[in-house]
Amino acid sequence: MPREKETKRDTLTTRQGRPVTDNQNLRTIGDRGPATMENYHFLEKISHFDREEVPERVVHARGTGAFGYFETYGKVGDEPVEKYTRAKVFSGAGKKTPLMVRFSTVAGSKDSPETERDPRGFAVKMYTEDGNWDLVGNNLKIFFIRDAMKFPDMIHAFKADPVSNVPDPTRMFDFVSRSPEATHMITFLFSPWGIPATYRHMQGSGVNTYKWVNDEGEAVLVKYHWEPKQGIRNLTQEDAGYIQAKNVAHATQDLYASIERGDYPEWELYVQIMEDGYHEELDFDPLDDTKLWPEDKFPWLPVGRMVLDENPTDFHAQIEQASFGTGVLVDGMDFSDDKMLIGRTFSYSDTQRYRVGANYLQVPVNAPKNKVRTNQHRGQLDHRNPEEGSGDPSINYEPSMIGGLEEAEEKSPQHQPTYNAAAMTKPIDRPNNYGQAGETYRNLADWEREELIKNLSNVLSQCDERIQEAMVYHFSQADEEYGRLVKEGIAKKTEEMEDMQEEEMPGREAGEQSRYGKGTANQQKASEEAVDKGNESEPY
């Protein structure tokens, strides 16, 4: 075949740099084979192909992301930010810090639909002048459980049956029925808030409680909230099914397309601030991540904005290998005693060491922008810059009298909380599992409450009667009407299913062809329709 007339292109090489003259054929004895053992280029090519993927995340496997910046206002509301925190990322009005964000679903696999009813991950990595800061949270501001001991069981229950690999809502509700603290989260999840229309049109939250520390070593509790400037849009179950039938990656496509056309999504960052302590005036523990802090007592205070204006150029390198951890804080931030936060802090970084490797922090998307100087090295794929070590590479330990690295000078006092209590394994003393769940139910718009009842009734009608009774009890404790309507909805749906006759499965016709990288016209249309079909909601 004649070679195409085109601009001269770079030459293909092996990974060792040798030019490849034939990338189409194995070396064989005769043109029909057998193949020879010294097919080095083929063996290298196929063996690398066999190892292309890293293990998918146990949670948050399906996701996408983008790059941009955070611009600080230099204030917390009307007050100087330095009153509360010495974190430099918040100081100096107008200062911009580069960042990347990964949005995700939680329980689904890597290729699961983005229309599933599931919390959405909202993880932000800021490359600050003092090192990386990861704010790892969800779109919903609360969680199912308040103690990290229950986390593996919760995720096991929410995933597919380990025997059949078939998703079964009975498993999730079996767990939730014995975890009354989940009533609040279930109320949000099965309302339209459980299916955001797109990643651009959803709120974000740190979920857990952190601390800010100022120059005096004084600390306050803090909650983080991201508010989308594009507005909030959520899908009904019916609309989500409509979108899913056309495109299972509509939210990924929507985010990429919006940035590509210059319609950069933007969020404003707010914080709520509370003095650290027991707070007897509250009917819940402020460290309980199943609770919202009431806005009238702890107002949202703006501190900056985030803009996403750059798409990834290599999804695997920049998004799939992006690694986050709740323990990745900078000076001026600290941990609260939130039991879920402490458990997440070990788990999140540990899973990255398993997934990506011991040196996952050397992957460019994870590496900080400031200088790294550490004695933590070696291991698989260690390729750190020798200049990032000490002046004497032989001194890979500290302390030393003759060289190597030394500790930084402490410029501001550390926050030093004090405790006087016995070590124990007990739940908190103010669980109040139903109060806020009832408030959230009553605060939903009429159409949102109707959708909530319908969704819960449809799913619970498939569950064991014991689970149905337990869930109706929990909902009734939150609000009498709530429990009664779910009970009536289960009975109605059960009757419908008993009367339903088996229908023939319709034939399937061949679909239209996809243009490479663009998706079908239906898929593109579905991505656009997700925004139009999303119903606007007020912030909560």
From TrEMBL:
Residue numbers spanned by region Disordered: 1-33, 367-400, 493-540
UniProt keywords, alphabetically: Heme, Hydrogen peroxide, Iron, Metal-binding, Oxidoreductase, Peroxidase
Pfam families the record matches: Catalase, Catalase-rel
Any Gene Ontology biological process: hydrogen peroxide catabolic process
GO cellular component, as recorded: cytoplasm
Residues of the Catalase core domain: 13-406
CDD domains: catalase_clade_1 (cd08154)
Residue ranges with Polar residues bias: 13-27
Documented EC number(s): 1.11.1.6
Cofactor(s) this protein cannot do without: heme
Catalytic activity from the UniProt record: 2 H2O2 = O2 + 2 H2O
PANTHER family, sorted: CATALASE, CATALASE-2
Family stated for the protein in its record: Belongs to the catalase family.
Function field: Decomposes hydrogen peroxide into water and oxygen; serves to protect cells from the toxic effects of hydrogen peroxide.
Name of the molecule in the record: Catalase
Organism encoding this protein: Salinicoccus hispanicus
